[in-house]
């Protein structure tokens, strides 16, 4: 057991790796009443090409990671949600491009719920009947997504940034791809990726770390799983040129416009990569944040409203920026944003004064986030698969310089790496 104290934050992180490879993170919070736990798997929607446990090359249908997440709750004679509900716990799960996570929060019966979490995730049950039923459920989910203008905008942009790549596929897959999912494929993916050494368990709340570790050790010792080599992904990430701008028509009241900027190189999952992420996030806030001159001018001109947003996404093996929102003047907003991109690192808003204000606000936001048990657990869980700890993030943020932000601007703002997507009201198609 390793215990690390973060005196400046008043935090303690206890870590241990079980004999079977499962990594455990515990953050004791004696003054809190709620406990939050998350069991995460380093496996997401992009992991469709890999070597299975026999060493053979495997290729799975799009959406299988999300399908597997849904099916793990349902057992032959019960549903795991019912077990959590019986104790008053609130359980959930999600699948992203890189990660699948199962979680619960509860004010009581922490050990019982923790055992339930470990048992249902580590005891798969897939049958032809239940898989067929799930195809209908997820099929309806896919159809609902496809009618959502926000999904259309985001998914469409990813397909332009990464044409033909798994990352451009929606996490849920397509109606055609989930039709090919079988119990055998689910078991193959499960056996490959759900091995304990590819998983982390994070617990935050008023718990005794020694008691939690003892419970987990006993629970894991009773299971036939053992430590083994991490899954070997067959990354065939062949980046085609960014696709040109597109315009679509959908059932929207106001037009939507978004610009995407593709990172030209993969981002390392280490300290240097985290520093670059921080610099990029500060860059976006300095240039496009609502306290800046650019935003105020665009707002006064009617080019954007409160829906305007910007984001930096880092998802194995891709990283990209998105900037946009609802607008009555897509062409005008495009011109305004693209003028910023074209300026590269020569940005009038990248001043020492504005940098100091934006960085201080980011530090304050980070500190506030430490008060939320769920946020802390989610961040520590997510970064368990990287070389950086969430409790180190604040110091890295403090150490970030304006020069690093300017360097990020020079690295990002390449017009050749950009594409745009506009979604117009359907009536405009026939006007």
TrEMBL record:
Every Peptidase M16 N-terminal domain range: 59-173
Domain (Peptidase M16 C-terminal) ranges: 180-361
Gene3D superfamilies in the cross-refs: Metalloenzyme, LuxS/M16 peptidase-like
Superkingdom of the organism of origin: Bacteria
GO function term, MF aspect, one: metal ion binding
InterPro entries referenced in this protein's UniProt entry, alphabetically: Metalloenz_LuxS/M16, MPP/UQCRC_Complex, Pept_M16_N, Peptidase_M16_C
Record protein name field: Zn-dependent peptidase
Organism: Lacticaseibacillus nasuensis JCM 17158
């Amino acid at each position: 057991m390793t215990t690390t104290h973060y005196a400046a934050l008043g935090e303690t992180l206890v870590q241990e790796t079980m004999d079977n490879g499962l990594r455990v993170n515990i953050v004791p919070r004696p003054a809190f009443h709620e406990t939050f736990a998350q069991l995460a798997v380093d496996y997401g929607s992009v992991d469709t090409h890999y070597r299975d446990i026999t060493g053979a090359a495997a290729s799975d249908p799009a959406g299988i990671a999300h399908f597997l997440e849904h099916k793990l709750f349902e057992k032959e004679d019960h549903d795991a949600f019912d077990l959590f509900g019986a104790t008053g716990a609130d359980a959930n799960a999600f699948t992203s491009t890189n990660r699948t996570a199962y979680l619960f929060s509860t004010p009581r019966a922490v050990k019982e719920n923790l055992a339930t979490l470990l048992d249902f995730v580590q005891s798969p049950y897939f049958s032809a009947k239940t898989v067929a039923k799930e195809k209908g459920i997820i099929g309806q989910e896919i159809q609902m997504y496809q009618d959502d203008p926000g999904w259309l905008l985001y998914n469409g942009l990813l397909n332009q940034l990464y044409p033909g790549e798994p990352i451009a596929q929606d996490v849920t897959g397509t109606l055609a791809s989930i039709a090919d999912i079988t119990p055998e494929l689910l078991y193959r993916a499960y056996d490959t990726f759900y091995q304990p050494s590819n998983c982390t368990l994070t617990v935050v709340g008023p718990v005794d770390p020694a008691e939690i570790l003892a419970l987990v050790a006993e629970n894991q010792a009773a299971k036939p799983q053992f430590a083994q080599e991490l899954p070997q992904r067959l990354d065939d990430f062949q980046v085609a040129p960014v696709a040109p701008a597109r315009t679509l028509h959908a059932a929207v009241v106001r037009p939507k416009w978004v610009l995407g900027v593709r990172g030209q190189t993969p981002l390392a999952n280490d300290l240097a990569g985290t520093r670059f992420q921080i610099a990029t996030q500060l860059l976006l806030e300095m240039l496009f944040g609502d306290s800046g001159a650019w935003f105020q001018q665009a707002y006064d001109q009617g080019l954007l409203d409160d829906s305007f947003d910007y984001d930096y996404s880092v998802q194995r093996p891709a990283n990209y920026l998105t900037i946009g929102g609802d607008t009555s003047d897509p062409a005008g907003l495009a011109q305004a944003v693209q003028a910023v991109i074209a300026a590269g690192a020569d940005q009038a808003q990248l001043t020492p004064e504005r940098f100091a204000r934006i960085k201080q606000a980011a530090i304050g936001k980070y500190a506030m986030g430490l008060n939320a048990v769920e946020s802390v657990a989610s961040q520590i869980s997510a970064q368990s698969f990287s070389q950086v700890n969430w409790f180190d993030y604040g110091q890295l943020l403090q150490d970030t310089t304006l020069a690093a932000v300017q360097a990020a601007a020079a690295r990002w703002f390449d017009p050749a790496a950009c594409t745009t997507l506009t979604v117009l009201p359907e009536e405009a198609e026939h006007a």
